[in-house]
Amino acid sequence: MDKIRVLIVDDSPFSQKLLKDALAKSKYEVCGCAGTGSDGIRQYRELHPDLVTMDLTLPDMDGLECCHEILTIAPDTKIVIVSAMKDEAIINRGTAIGVKAFFQKPVKSEDLLAGLDHIIAAQQGDEADQQHFLEYFIAAFQKNIMDMTGISILSMDNSTSQALTSHGLAVIVGITGSQQGRIMLDLSMDVAKIFTKKLLGTDAVSEEDIFNSISEFTNIIAGHSVSQINNLLKDREYEIRLTPPSILIGESITIINPKMTSNTVIAQTVIGSLYMNVGFVGGK
Amino acid sequence: MDVKMINPFIDAIMNIMPQLGFQNVVKGKISVGQQFVESKGITILVGLTDQIRGNIAYNLTEQTAMAIASKMMMGMPVAALDDLAQSAISELTNMVTGNAATRFEQDGLRVDISPPSLVVGEAFKLKVSSSKFLVVEMIADSLVIELNIGID
Fold first, then answer.
1. pLDDT tens across A132-171, in order?
2. Hey, where are the domains in chain A?
3. Which CATH architecture has domain A125-283?
4. Which residue of B has its CA nearest to A168?
């Protein structure tokens, strides 16, 4: 396996050496050392490291400011703070801009390696699990459209997406526990109305009926999928739970989950399209 | 829902905002919402589950969101609600809701929170609860954040 390349940003040659020593004989390889924030940014652009360790006090800028600059270039960058200071305010400010972990100097080699391993493993493990979980959501989506309304599905499509634009009515159910994310069902008001008529088996449906029915339908898809996943995970500690649905009403509204990559599944039916989006942000 | 349920959220804002550099954080109006939250432009939704189930919607104008994001990023100018500003404002709601969850737990109520969903757009409304919800205005250095708390 290729080594994981690390850029060290720290103005103290002593600390740079300690970090290099801590990472020696591991799966990490120090690809660059920078003594200032601006040099750190320059080397980041040049080297594209997998990980960055950042000191908080740099001669030319604040370490968090330097993190901010790097995260502007590449929002997915894994940056950890290694600094003499570590308090709640620093952790909150750092987390807010996307820092992955905080270590206090002097950091023990085994603590640093364990922390970095966790960040790398979390990313790899989650990606595999989440792709697998998506299949349960797709199956529940397909089955419940047919079972609950009798509407036949003409085709199912699946694509990765970042920001989403609602078609008129969107129901969001949050996912929490060992995996965090959300499921969203989205459809136009016209499709929602016809769908609700089919769900309730009546032609007279109020706006309230539509909101209630579509949110319950979303809840059922989410509940079925998560039950299957929980059976698979068995251990209660890894259980996934759902939050109650919330409903968004309005056209051309954008729904953004900054840390989330999600999949949109489109079910084309005779009454129009239903969009299900499932996204995860990685485990606890 | 019990009016006391809003206190952990108020305390959480009072605790977190000063850490992000806000000087003066006060509680504004409190009212009861009937059915829909009318968005001010930016709404961030966080779901709650376990012994407390519901949703909280943080409602603010785009200007306010940008001003808060700028403060969180050490005063760097924020001219638009770009990816980083979106991430900062989402993380703020995550911290506040997480802090409130810890406070509920200290009172013996387990709460788990979902990741925030940031909703942007003109003239949209949302439903956070099947019944009434409580609206609390919090003001941090004259920036208004409206909390819409719907607990089943």
1. 889 999 999 999 999 999 999 999 888 887 678 999 999 9
2. 4-107, 125-283
3. 3-Layer(aba) Sandwich (3.40)
4. B124
Check if B87 contacts A (Cβ < 8 Å).
yes
Instruction: For residue range A36-67, list pLDDT tens digits in order.
Output: 999 999 999 999 999 999 999 999 999 999 99
Chain B contact present for A162, CB below 8 A:
no
Q: Three-state DSSP class for B23?
A: coil
Q: Is B127 exposed, middle or buried (0-12, 13-18, 19+ CB in 10 A)?
A: buried
A57 contacts: CB under 8 Å, gap ≥ 6: A11, A63, A83, A84, A85
When mean pLDDT is compared across A78-82, A113-117, A279-283, B76-80, the lowest value belongs to A279-283
Query: How is A119-169 classified by DSSP, letter by letter?
Result: HHHHHHHHHHHHHHHHHHHHHHHHHHHHHHH-PPEEEEEEEEESSEE-SSE
Crossing angle of helices A13-23 and A109-149, in 10° steps, is 60
Contact B87 A259 (CB under 8 A): yes
Assess contact for A218 and A171: CB atoms under 8 A.
yes
Residue A253: its chain B contacts at CB < 8 A? 119-122, 124
- The pLDDT, as a whole number, for residue A283 is 45
Instruction: Round the average pLDDT of chain A to a whole number and report it.
Output: 90
Instruction: List the 47-86 stretch of B: residues with Cβ below 8 A of A.
Output: 47-50, 53-55, 57, 72-74, 76, 83-84, 86
Q: For chain B of 152 residues, list the mean pLDDT of each consecutive stretch of 10.
A: 91 93 95 93 96 96 95 87 88 92 91 94 89 94 97 89
Look up residue A25 and give its amino acid.
K
pLDDT score at A1: 63
- Give Cα separations from A238 to A200, A230, A247, B47, B57 (angstroms): 36, 8, 28, 19, 27
Can you tell me the ipTM of this complex?
0.92
Q: How far apart are CA B33 and CA B54, in angstroms?
A: 14
Q: Among 3.40.1550.10, 3.40.1440.10, 1.20.5.320, 3.80.30.20, name the CATH number for the domain at B3-151.
A: 3.40.1550.10
